[in-house]
Amino acid sequence: MTDKIPVYEDIIKAHERILPFVHRTPVLSSTGINNIVGIHLYFKCENFQKVGAFKFRGATHAVRQLTADEAKKGVTTHSSGNHAAALSLAARQMNIPAYIVMPESAPAIKKKAVKGYGAEITFCDSTLEAREKTLDIVQQKTGATFIHPYHNFNVICGQGTAAKEFLEDYPDLDVIIAPVGGGGLISGTSIAAKAIKKGIKVFGAEPLNADDAYRSFKQGKLIPALKPNTIADGLLTSLSPLTFQIIRENLDDILTVKEETIVEAMRMIWERMKIIVEPSSAVPLAAVIENNRLFKGKKVGIIISGGNVDLDNLPFKLTH
Amino acid sequence: MTDKIPVYEDIIKAHERILPFVHRTPVLSSTGINNIVGIHLYFKCENFQKVGAFKFRGATHAVRQLTADEAKKGVTTHSSGNHAAALSLAARQMNIPAYIVMPESAPAIKKKAVKGYGAEITFCDSTLEAREKTLDIVQQKTGATFIHPYHNFNVICGQGTAAKEFLEDYPDLDVIIAPVGGGGLISGTSIAAKAIKKGIKVFGAEPLNADDAYRSFKQGKLIPALKPNTIADGLLTSLSPLTFQIIRENLDDILTVKEETIVEAMRMIWERMKIIVEPSSAVPLAAVIENNRLFKGKKVGIIISGGNVDLDNLPFKLTH
C-alpha cells in the first residue's frame, strides 16, 4: 500500500486532511531578482512551513492516516534532517510517540530540534546499515510504524499539496521547479501540477555533485548516488523505486547545477528577498540562472523547500 | 517648515501620496517565539520594504513633496546607511538626481547599493564636520535640497505610515515598540498610534550602548550620544530637537537593552521566523525579553525596521 503511485485525487484528499495542521505558505516575488535573471519568478515559501520545511506536509499526512491501533504504538524513522523534525512534531500533535534513529555524529542543533519536538532518539553509527539495523530493533521493541521520508504513498500525497496551493494562488505559472533529493517533493509536485494544468512544465533541479536522479532519468534505470558531496545537504539522498517511477513518467527534465551557482543563488535570495532558505532551496534558482534561455518569457514557480541552516556555518565565504 | 511637528492628519495625507510607490508590508507572527517569551507578538516587516528598510517611506514622501523647481535640482544627504539608499531610489523613481555624501571608509557593499540606485556619490572624511562641509559644497554646486534622515517633517510623516498600516491590519494591539536611532521612526509611529487608538502604549527600544534617547527622555533635555558603540549600527545616531520634542510628548517609556540580548533576539528571529533582519530590528524584541513582565497578557506590535546586513560579518558567534 505505501508504494502505490498516487493520483491527483489522492493529493486533494490529503490536502483536506492536513489543512487544519499545516500553514498555507505565502508566495513571494522579488523585483530585484526578476531584473537580474530577466524572468518572472514566484517563490512558494515552505521555509515558513512548520518545522521550517515542506516535510511537515508529508509527515502530517502519514501520521493522520494511521489506524487507531497503529497510532497508539507510534511512528519511527531514521533521519537527521527535516523529516525527523517533521515526523516528531506531527506525532506530538497527535499525542503519539515518535522514535527517531539518528547517527551519534549528527549536529547538536539537529538533535536538539528533534528532542524539542518531544521525540525519543536512539543513536547509532552513521552507516546506512547501522541505521537500518537500529530501526529494526526499535520497531520490534515498540511496534511503531516506519514512515519513510519519501518511499511512501501518504508522504508523497502530502508533499504534493504545496504545488496544489501554488497553482490555486498562481494559476498562470508556465513552469514549476522543485529540488530533487529522495524525490518525494518533486513526485507530489509533478502529479499535482500535471493534473491541474495541461501543458505546464515540471523540472527537477539537482546538484551536479549529487546527480543520481539526473542519471537515473537519462538512462532509464535507477542509479543510486555513489559519493554525493554537495552543500545542499537536503539533497544527498537517492531516489527510491517509487519516486523514480513517478519522476520518469512525469518530469519534463532534470537540470543539474554547480556548487558555486547554488551559493550564488542562495545569497541572492537572502540579500534580495530577506528570507532565510537552506542551500537545497536555492538549487531551483541556480537552475534558472544556469539555463536562463530555457525560461525566457515564462512565468516560473519555484518551491522553496526549507529554511533550516546552521547560522554558525554559512557558505557565503565561497563567493568572495 | 521641515521642523514643524506633524499631526496624524499629515500622516494620513503622506500615506495617500506614497501608496503607489511603497510596499504594504506583511505582519508576521511566530508560535515558536510567542512560546519562548510567553507574549503574543506581531512583527510589521519593513525588512520587506523597498531597499530593505522603512526609510523608503520617509524618503519617498520627502521627494514627492518637492516643488517642480526643487525637484529638477535633485536631493542630497550625508549618510552611508539605509537613508542614503532610500533617498537614491526615491529620487530615481522620479527621474531626479540624488547626491550622496559618504565617508571613504563606508563599506564597499553600501557604496555599491547607493551607486546601484543611480545616485552620485561624493566621498569625504568620516568626521561629522567633514560630512557637513562636503554637503554644503554639494548643495552650493547643485542647488539640491537637503533631505535630513529624521529632522524633517515630511520624512517623519512618511515613517508614521508603517504604524498606520500596522493598526489597520491589527487594531487589537495594546503596545507598539520601535527602535530609536535618530528618532524618525518612533516619532511617526507614536503620532500615528496615539491618534488611532486611545490608551495604546508606545515604547522606544534603544541599545544601552547608544542610550542618548533614554537619557534625554529621562532628564528632559536633549543629550547627544558621546561614544555610541553598538552592534545595532542603524541606531548610532542621536535625536534631533524635532524628534526629541515628539518623543518627549508621546512615548510611554524608552527601554534600553544589552548587546547580548540584541544578538539573542536577532538569532531568535532568524532561526524561528526564517526572515533576515538587521541588528537594529532586533532591539524591540530584546526589550520584550529583558522586560518580560511589563508585557504579560498584552498584544505587542514590533516594527522590524530593516533587513540590510553584511552576510560576511554576522554577529552570531557572540552567542556561543
Account of the protein in words:
The structure is a homodimer of 320-residue chains. The first copy, chain A, is an alpha/beta fold and 320 residues long. The first copy, chain A, folds into two domains: 8-53 and 153-304, Rossmann fold (3-Layer(aba) Sandwich), CATH 3.40.50; 56-146, Rossmann fold (3-Layer(aba) Sandwich), CATH 3.40.50.1100. Helix content of chain A is 44%, strand content 15%. Chain A has 13 helices and ten strands. The first copy, chain A, has helices spanning 8-18, 31-37, 55-64, 68-73, 82-93, 108-116, 128-142, 153-169, 184-196, 212-219, 241-250, 259-273, 283-290; strands at residues 27-28, 40-45, 75-78, 98-103, 120-124, 145-146, 175-179, 201-207, 253-257, 299-304. Chain A has a six-stranded mixed sheet with strand order 1-2-10-7-8-9, with helices on both faces. In chain A, helix 6 links the parallel strand 4 (98-103) and strand 5. In chain A, helix 3 (55-64) crosses helix 5, helix 8 packs across helix 9 and helix 12 crosses helix 13. The mean pLDDT of chain A is 95. Chains A and B meet through helix 12 of A and helix 12 of B.
